[in-house]
Amino acid sequence: MKDITYAAPKTIAEATGLLNDKGDRARILAGGTDIIVQVREGRRDIDALVDVKHIAEVNELTCDAKGLVIGAAVPCCVIYENKAIAKAYPGLMDAVTLIGGIQIQSRASLGGNLCNASPAADSIPVLIALEGTCEIAGPKGNRSVPVEQFCTAPGKTVLGRGEFLVRFRFPPPKPHSGAAYLRFIPRNEMDIAVVGAGVAVQLDGSKCKSARIALAAVAPTPLLVADAGAALVGTTLDDAAIAKAAAIAQAAAKPISDMRGDADYRRHLVGVLVKRSLAIAIDRAKP
Q1: Which of 31, 145, 275, 280 is the most exposed place for a label (fewest CB within 10 A)?
Q2: Fold exhibited by the domain 5-51
Q3: How many secondary structure helices (H) and strands (E) does the chain include?
Q4: In what order do the strands lie in the sheet with 61-64?
Q5: pLDDT digits (tens, 9 = 90+) for 244-286
């Protein structure tokens, strides 16, 4: 087997320095549920693993009036065991409880799920729907990127040389708002979404004030369908309005055919899951 250097920095500056020195030959280790498997199977050829779990900022988890902050290395189980987060962000709970089994959830993080940049990642659509932003650190300083702009292609992200994802920030829940995530899998033994849909809505009386709809597994990257959300604004969220938004989402999807489902089947599922997830989010948004 090939020797791989292991480093465990304790500060952001130390981590960015190590990553900058190694460039593409280094990868972040947090939960390790993706990178360790990829290296073992020869799908990633690297020289160094930089373990960021000892850096305080990537382990941050706060939920208060200012919103929600989740460090990139916080395990999924720590998130869904937090009662304040579960109450304020139920749509996020839909996703984090689906990422692998209990053993995986004790290691896997939202940061790792995003940085793996799988088009079918379960957490990303709802992170987009909830207007999440990514805080990135690098040799030249820090920058913020909306979650929907983070993935650029399958397995590719906006991260440059020496950069890594530190934390997520989410705004506080809006009054009379709700979110939800649903996915379809062919069977429990194949725990990868054929299609996923994450949505968020805000009500103003009987009408929709704002809405966001994001999809997984139907494009090269997780997909924010802004037009579908915009189609709901000002409506009473009746069946006709929801059907129109679902049709717009279907039209925006560009799925492929593979062993999990063909393109037409995936496009059909987009309509089904958008309607169902909107129904859940609307119910959660009601007073």
Answers
A1: 145
A2: 3.30.43
A3: 11, 14
A4: 61-64, 67-71, 164-170, 133-138, 141-146
A5: 999 999 999 999 998 888 999 999 999 999 999 999 999 999 9
State the CATH class of domain 56-170: alpha beta
Tokens of 238: 């009746």
Q: Within 185-262, where are the H helices?
A: 226-230, 239-252
The conformational region for residue 269 under phi > 0 = left, psi -120 to 50 = alpha, else beta, is: alpha
pTM of the model: 0.94
8 Å CB contact between 61 and 69:
yes
Q: pLDDT tens for residues 14-30?
A: 999 999 999 888 999 89
The CATH homologous superfamily to which domain 177-285 belongs is CO dehydrogenase flavoprotein, C-terminal domain (3.30.390.50)
Question: Residue ranges per domain, the chain?
Answer: 5-51, 56-170, 177-285
Angle at 76 between CA 100 and CA 16, to 5 degrees: 110
